[in-house]
TrEMBL record, chain A:
Cofactor(s) the record lists: heme
Primary location recorded for the protein, binned into one broad class: periplasm
Residues the entry annotates as binding heme c 2: 178, 181-182, 223
Family: Belongs to the SoxA family.
Protein name as catalogued: SoxAX cytochrome complex subunit A
Domain Cytochrome c: 58-143
EC code: 2.8.5.2
Residues that bind substrate: 219
InterPro entries according to UniProt: Cyt_c-like_dom (IPR009056), Cyt_c-like_dom_sf (IPR036909), SoxA (IPR025710)
Signal peptide extent: 1-21
UniProtKB/TrEMBL annotation, chain B:
Organism domain of life: Bacteria
InterPro entries linked to this entry: Ig-like_fold, Ig_E-set, SoxZ, SoxZ_dom
Name of the protein in its database record: Thiosulfate oxidation carrier complex protein SoxZ
Source organism (scientific name): Henriciella algicola
Gene3D superfamilies from the UniProt entry: Immunoglobulins
Pfam families cross-referenced by the UniProt entry: SoxZ
Residues covered by the Sulphur oxidation protein SoxZ domain: 9-100
């Protein structure tokens, strides 16, 4: 009897080992890739398409003004970043990326704050502050239409693996993983809503639910809260890793900032 | 500081009907919601939107708490003479924001 139990547990171990091994194979990602835009109602799509009425442009206007206004210490972003040197058009499509100086993974918000602390002698903006959202939205908007392409080699490989692990791990009281909705069941209905493929291409985006512009990390916090898991802090390593995984997963889709989402 | 976006033509011919659009960044907080700490979020509403064209009121609206954040208005007027179009929003506490657009009638 005891031997039987031991045999059973040995079998379990092997089986569980197989499951772990299985997640190392290429993930079953959505095909064809569809931006969250494709899952919106026509009226919401029209709002995103209208470069005047899209409320996200309120933040982009502010971001553009901040970009060309000198800070207290005397330098404006626009002094270094011109069309001729260090142009930012297309740059946002390659984030998150590894910062060469520190070796850490940073997203667009992180890069803007590094610019402030390293080159402008200013304090970093608080995550999700109006200023950081506005600047991030403006810089991302400069890359609107550029297909996303991120590097997951070298130092980024571990981050990518961590992000994928977060995406595929069941969590919260509902015991759901991101992949169960966004890889396995996209296009189907969840109550009154159509489940999207979960791409972050429109962020920072104006969400009708928020009545405001918000970052991808705010969206991820909502996802975690939605499955009744503990949301991670803004700018946390977990969310940076997920952001990298999502960017790789959305590779080829174009940046849409400012997106409008439900 | 509220960000304002105005869409209006710079020039128009006399008698032409022109489209004016105005968008303002404002939370339009109803006063009925509570925050994450369970406390009530104070009411904060724009109550009045007025537009004058060459000194004459061409559009006005009373706003209520049922109106969403960042309200946008689209309306039409007939171009008569060259002059300033002044868009003005006033909130419940009397604070106001305005933006002027100059229209030239040819």
């Amino acid at each position: 009897m005891k031997a039987g139990l031991a045999l059973l547990s040995a079998f379990c171990l092997t089986a569980c080992g197989d499951v772990v091994a299985d997640t190392k194979s290429p993930p079953a990602q959505p095909q064809p890739l569809q931006s969250g835009y494709e899952f919106l109602q026509p009226q919401t799509q029209a709002l995103q398409d209208d470069d005047f009425a899209n409320p996200g442009f309120l933040w982009i206007d502010r971001g553009e003004a901040l970009f060309s206004t000198a800070t207290a210490s005397g330098s404006a972003c626009s002094e270094c970043h011109t069309d001729a040197s260090l142009p930012l058009a297309g740059a946002a499509a390659h984030y998150p990326k590894i910062d060469a100086e520190s070796g850490d993974l940073i997203n667009l918000e992180g890069r803007i704050n590094l610019c402030r602390t390293r080159h402008q002698n200013e304090a970093a903006f608080e995550y999700e502050s109006d200023e950081l959202l506005s600047l991030t939205a403006y810089v991302a908007y400069l890359s609107r239409g550029t297909p996303i392409s991120v590097d997951i080699e070298g130092a980024a490989a571990d981050w990518y693996a961590r992000g994928r692990d977060y995406f595929e791990t069941r969590r919260g009281q509902f015991n759901l993983s991101c992949t169960q909705c966004h890889d396995d069941n996209w296009g189907k209905k969840l109550r009154g809503d159509t489940i999207s493929q979960g791409h972050g291409t429109g962020f920072p985006a104006y969400r009708l639910e928020w009545q405001s512009l918000g970052s991808l990390h705010r969206r991820l916090r909502d996802c975690d809260a939605g499955v009744r898991a503990e949301p991670r802090p803004y700018g946390s390593d977990d969310y940076l890793a997920v952001e990298l995984y999502l960017a790789k997963r959305a590779e080829g889709l174009e940046i849409e900032t400012p997106g409008v989402r439900r | 500081m509220a960000t304002i976006r105005i869409a209006a033509p710079d020039t128009a011919s006399a008698g032409e009907v022109i489209e004016l659009k105005a968008l303002i960044q404002h939370p339009m907080e109803t006063g009925y919601r509570s925050g994450p700490d369970g406390k009530r979020i104070e009411r904060d509403i724009i109550e009045k939107f007025e537009v004058t064209y060459d000194g004459e009121t061409v559009f006005e609206a009373d706003l209520q708490p049922g109106i969403a954040a960042n309200p946008i208005f689209t309306f039409y007027t007939r171009a008569t003479a060259s002059g300033p179009i002044v868009f003005k929003w006033t909130d419940q506490d009397g604070e106001s924001w305005s933006e002027t657009h100059d229209l030239t009638v040819e």
